[in-house]
Each structure stands twice: as C-alpha cells, then as structure tokens.
Fold this protein.
Amino acid sequence: MPKWHPRFPNWQSLCKEKTDLNTTKPFQILSLDGGGIKGLFSAALLAKIEDSLGGISIVDHFDLITGTSTGGIIALGLAAGMRPREIVQFYVMEGPSIFRKTRFWTGAKAWFSSKYPQEPLKKALEKCFQDRVLSDSTKRLVIPSYNLAKDEVYVFKTPHHKRLTTDGKVSMWKVALATSAAPTYFPCCNHVDNMRLVDGGLWANNPTMVGIVEAVSLLGIPLESISTFSLGTTNSIAQKSRSLDRGGFIQWRSKGIDAALRGQSHGVQGQAQLLLTTDRAIRLDPMVPDGLFALDKLNEDELLAEAAHEARKFAPTFTSHFASHKAEPVSFGKNLAA
C-alpha cells in the first residue's frame, strides 16, 4: 500500500506545530480534476464565472489550489498569474499539437508504447511557464504525481510550511509534465531528479481530499473553517456491458479505467461531504452524452458551449458560497532552503 507523505514519515506530528495562519478564518480550497484535453472545460468555466461576476479574479477567493494532471496544469497556470481565459487559449492553441491525430498503424502502436510523444507537451509547458519555479507561485499549491520506481505517491508542494524545502526550486513546467504523464498516453517524466513520475490520477484524479488533508495536517486548519470547490472535466455514464461481469483485459481496458476514475471521484466527494457537510463541499462535474468528449479528443465548440451553460447556472452558487472570502496574499521566497 502506498505510503502517505513519503518525504515526511512523521507527518502526523506536523499538525502539532504552530502555523502563521489565522485558523479561525474561512479557508477555501479549489480542487481541479484530471481529464486530458477536457481541461479546456474547467478553464473555460472559470473564465466564464469571472466574466459573469464582473471580472473578478477567481484565485483571489481561494487559499489553496490542488490539481491533478490537466487540473494540475490549470492550478499551476492560475498560481503563475495567468487568468483562466489565458489558460483556455493554451488548450486551444497547444492541444492539437499535443494530441496530434495519428494514422491507424500509429494508433495501434499504443498497445505496446505510449500513444503520444512527450516532446510536444514538454515544449508547450516550457513555453507556458518559462523559467518560473514553484516558489514563484502566488498560491499554496498541492500537485499529485506518482513515483513508479518507489511505488509511492509523490506530491509537489509550494513551500507553505517551514518543513517544505524540497520543491520550491522545481520548475513549474516539470511539475506540470510529471502530474500529466498519463500512462498509455504519454511516457513517464524523468525531468525531476531522474525520478520516474507519472500522472497523479493513478491515485488522486479528484484531489479534493489531498487539499483537505494538507490544510488540516500541515497548516492546522480546523475542518469547520474549510470549504471546497471541486471542479470536474465533465462526466458521461454509458450502460455497462454485461461482458464486464466476467470480463478480462480486453473488456475492461476500454471501460474499466473510466469506471475506476469515476468511482474514485465519487468516493472522494462523499468523504469530503462527510467531513465538511454538503454545504461546504461543493462539486461541479456536469453530465454529458456518452462519447461526446474524451481524454484526447473533443469538439471544441461543444465543450466551450457546455462550459458557458454550466458557468451561468453555477455563478449564483459561487457568489453565495465562495465570493465573500478573500484569501490573504502569500509569498514563498523566504521559505526556501539556503
């Protein structure tokens, strides 16, 4: 069983240490799911909420952001000072080269190796984040990945606690590449100290609980002060074929992964609601027709239209649950190890 916080074996003791945070104030967490190119939906929805509420900055209302895979890329973009509409443009401009359509024989190669090369994604992330490192973030970040060699979870964190001195100097593009290295789609990321890092969706595709645990265990925030906004990348449920009842690899390869991610996400949201109450654990992950969108293909116009529709409906909820709180600004340069 993977160890939690492998870099801090005595992590339970951390919550006993003093924190500079005022733990009596509300503490709001933005959680962003993985979902490949469907991250365009998440970014577009956040952009539409900003526009519909008079041009607010969405990040001003959250004290911590956690994101996995494509959600990790969005989280890093927001923390680097990008507005959601800029992140939308990143997906629109870079998506076609990252998920370049392949001929049948190349697609068949995916049975034996990654479906897409890493280089286009790497170049796009390098261009996006340039020389920024995690300590340049304007928000507390928690970005899940997974270390294949050690068979352990690996969580990238901004230096928002005095013990967190490891990741502050890591380039944002490397963190983004590591959290989004989805098995079968992309090769693993070897750019962070030569570790074999892959997509955090292996264990936390919906990272809401990762954010809650970070707030409670490391920052000393009481549960009653925490609220979460968990944003999915759209959800589709098809009728489960009877072939899955006794199915093997062939039957489960196509539908089993989706079922596992969906089950994990439902479980996480249920846990968050039990800890925080349903009123303080809000999730938006709209249903769409089966097959309309996928991790590596979509109809751009339809996805943007879906985001606009859902943002219009969700804006009043955002106003009533999250808009009144303004997160205090943070700066991490002084927290880095010498």
The first strand starts at residue 27 and ends at 32. The first helix runs from residue 39 to 52. Confidence is low (pLDDT under 50) at residues 1-12.
